[in-house]
Amino acid sequence: MEIAKVMAIVNPWAGIGNGLRCYKKIIKWKDAAAKEGLKVDGFLTEKEGDRCAVNLAKNAVQNGYGLIVSCGGDGTLNEVVNGTMGSDVPILSLRVGNGNDFAKAVGTPKNIEEALGLIKHGKIESFDVGKVNNRYFINVFGVGFDAKISRYAEILKQKLPLAAGNLLYLIALIKEFFGGLEYFDLGLTMIDKENSSRIIRAKDVTLISIANGPTCGGIFRLAPEANPQDGVLDICLINKINRLKILRFLPKAIKGTHLSLKEVMKESDGRLPRISFLTVASLKGQPLPCQMDGEILPAEKEYRISVFPKAQKVLVPRSFLAPDSASVRTEETAFKKIPELQLAQVKRFRDFMLKFKLF
């Protein structure tokens, strides 16, 4: 594929030092690319202002860049997407962050040099993008339990800067497990692809995840059949579930086999509901904690969620095939044979965390 000018947007805080290591590789690659007629500009992101990832991506669109390389995790990619929506500029998402759920789902190589090689040997595919109120997401939007986990995982990054992302999510999960589960009464208005609508009042909801991709948090397959190219979003709603049932739920959620549990809202065919539009509102009028692509956003009382089919171009390997209900592209993990968790094991893990003041 012919691309003349590339902007690399690098999150220096991504991963366990991965962001800065990636930036050094980008600088080195920049000189090699120049010899082949490819102009590469690399920028380290800042939290706000002109150098935040959203504004850098907007700048790339306005100044004729042919490709944006997102060097971070799902949160960095989210910002880049919010800067490119409405344009035809494709994104290459490198696996530099903690979860990298979307990059894994589209088959981006873990090795940075191999991933950059897609500029020569890859192909452009178009993917769906979700929108919640006034912000876009590329992988997942969640309300409830998973949002609280994401919030504490962010805090843990400061306490455990060298810890892997999957470990951070697991520690955060155990903390929420023992910290007291919170349930939410939700009013849902759902419209499917055929424009059929229904209204649901769901009491004592543990979490609701609106998924474009199959995984979140690096290891959880809450929507195992989600396809980011099918024009709909998959809804995983978990009704009230106590601590003992969570011990059964977690291994199943990691393997994507939790749909067999009665607490999971399903259609008559046993699959998760799929929607083109959804409202999620608090029946009690309280703000609902939420996360978008792993990043915590201010809680609101109502969320209006829609999907924009094939709205974002992404550079992927030529071998990429869109997932379907029979075969979802997920990376092999060490969790495929994870056993049912025992309460005593979880308590020992909690005591270990308390000893080191991680809770």
Please give a quick description of this structure.
This is DAGKc domain-containing protein. Pfam families: DAGK_cat, YegS_C. Helices cover 30% and strands 29% of the residues.
What can you tell me about this protein's structure?
The protein has 359 residues and is an alpha+beta fold. It has 2 domains: 117 residues, 3-Layer(aba) Sandwich (Rossmann fold), CATH 3.40.50.10330; 200 residues, Tumour Suppressor Smad4, CATH 2.60.200. It is 30% helix and 29% strand. The protein contains 10 helices and 15 strands. The strands form 2 sheets. Strands 5, 6, 7, 8, 9, 10, 11, 12, 13, 14 and 15 form an 11-stranded antiparallel beta sheet that branches. A 4-stranded parallel beta sheet has the order 2-1-3-4, with helices on both faces. Strand 8 and strand 9 form a beta hairpin. Helix 2 packs parallel to helix 3 and helix 8 packs across helix 10. The longest helix has 18 residues. The termini are far apart. About 5% of the residues have low confidence.
Average residue-wise pLDDT: 87
The name CATH uses for the topology of the largest domain is Tumour Suppressor Smad4
Order of helices and strands: EHEHEHEHHHEEEHHEEEHEEEEEH
Number of folding domains? 2
Q: What's the layout of helices and strands?
A:
Layout: E1 5-10, H1 18-35, E2 39-44, H2 53-62, E3 67-72, H3 74-84, E4 91-95, H4 101-105, H5 112-116, H6 118-121, E5 123-132, E6 135-137, E7 140-144, H7 145-159, H8 165-179, E8 184-191, E9 197-211, E10 233-239, H9 243-255, E11 274-275, E12 277-282, E13 288-292, E14 295-300, E15 302-316, H10 343-355
Parallel strand pairs: 1-2, 1-3, 3-4
Antiparallel strand pairs: 5-6, 5-15, 7-9, 7-13, 8-9, 8-12, 9-10, 10-11, 12-15, 13-14
GO molecular function: ATP binding; kinase activity
Keywords: ATP-binding, Kinase, Nucleotide-binding, Transferase
Protein name: DAGKc domain-containing protein
